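Researcher: Please translate sequence to structure tokens.
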Amino acid sequence: MSGQLNITRRDFINGVALGVAAGLSLSPRELLALGSAEGVPYPPALTGMRGSHPGSFEVAHGLSRHGATWPRPATLTDQPYDLVIVGGGISGLAAALLHRQRVGPQSRILVLDNHDDFGGHAKRNEFNVDGKLLIGYGGSQSIDTPGRYSKVAGKLLQDISIHTERFYDYFDQAYYSQRNLGRAIYFSREAYGADSVHPNVTWFFGRTEPHDDIAGTVGRYPLSDASRASLMRLLTEGVDYLEGMGRKQKIGALRALSYTDFLVRRAGVTPEVATLLRDTTKGFWGVGWDALSALEALRLGMPGTGGLGIGELENETPQRDEPYIFHFPDGNAGVARALVRQLIPAAVPGESMEDLVLARVNYALLDAPENNTRLRLNSTAVNVSHADRGRQVDVTYVQSGKVHRVRGRHAVLACYNEMIPHLCSELPKAQKEAIAYATKVPLVYISVALRNWRAFENLGFQSFYIPQGELMHSFGMDFPVSMGGYAFTQRSSEPTVIHGTYVPTVPGRGLKAREQHVQGRRLLYEQTFDELEGKIVRQMSGALAGGGFDAARDIAALTVNRWPHGYAYEYNDYADPLEYDRDNGPHVAGRARIGRISIANSDASAYAYVDGAIDAAHRAVNEQLAIE
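Model: Translation complete:
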């Protein structure tokens, strides 16, 4: 399929990744070679396979999967630093800034990251289509509910000139309603025998799409008569499917059942309807409703829970109380770029959150020797240990096939949590076991640059939910944000970026969330870019064909942001003990300080959001400064 498209991309297939995953025996010398990466001047403009891109993970896989070791260099690469940070995501960058704010601008800090770009999962995608710059997000999406941030996280946003109240002006909340663009369900021929598109009247967060004829719409869904009838009952009748139980009993029953089982066993819908709804939460939790409780479905206002009569749940974190509008055109890459600008002003021009949008980072200046804070990319840490009788920390890393060693008075590990036991042999056994409890959520964020979006306008839809999708479970037009001289598309004849989401899961096998994340990661790594691209194009073509879409003509470029170790694991009440939450659980023991080494990442907060990353950085910096 890709040979039919005029797609500009730097196409890497992951043959190396497959080889490592399959258990090939590689020598340290061969693994050194895998760590080499050709420098690129401007990573956001690269297309093809991004995210966990080839060159970013092979050395780490050698360390964690094969026990590979690297020689400790006899000499230090640089003069000792005050702080060495492993991981240049939002947590690592925030730790650098918080440390500098406490110690002073003279503090010498080195940030190492294994990718060719900074930001961790907060990645920026850029395209130039017919002379127009398009900006999209390739990972961490938005600043969610900033009004509930801790004082530290809220202040840090202000310190880097991010004023969230301005998004009320920049985010056009009426954009899609004014253009009569609704939400659709795409029933694919692979899952339903033929391609068809219909209005989606089964959304969540307590919403159903406004529609004059719900019965007529459901009546046209390609389902059996029994399924259409049971879906209508679910959507329109406020039935108490737990009638006869007390409130406490109901809550216990909902927690013990997956929402999928609740629908079939309690609500009496057909398995076909349960499957139709199953994947609606994949972009939110990283699994479908077969691995989440019916109580969570109640929290999110899913069909069939409105008549239970439970009311407000006690001791619950309040749901989103601000509109979901705090979004840079490049998502939370804007936050990462703002942090880098504060740390290395010469590398990122401008002063405001507005001029940050079009600012072009000078990557050549990130690791300049004259910087007090240096950001070193394409550098994979392979060992972190105390030195000088415990008064310093040495970090050994691989960059461009060569082994280096740097030293700091303190170290913060702001990298992927499950790599830490492999990096730091000083971790106690109990702490390693605590870290091993959780596993990252694999996901793929797909950015497709279109030369126009007439097909969306012709169909009258802004986005598509794809039940039982062979790859993406949803795709659609981006958030309508215009700021800093960057204008979101106003006419369907203009180029724009389409965002797609793929969360690999293995539903229907009785697996809990953590088990599905592990299996999903394997599924993801076994797919080449060409395979992913072909499925993406097929899904878009099937959904948009009725609007006149032609992939070869309309797709200008495609970027697959692959994150096998994606978002931090968050506890859910179907799979984890009830007492586990952000303040209590294995992650608390897992993030314990090891001498002059502290841990800061969203994993350590059990919370996959910007404030979770910042709060973790604050804790880690405080831990280290307390032992000065």
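Researcher: Any highlights?
Model: Confidence is low (pLDDT under 50) at residues 1-40.
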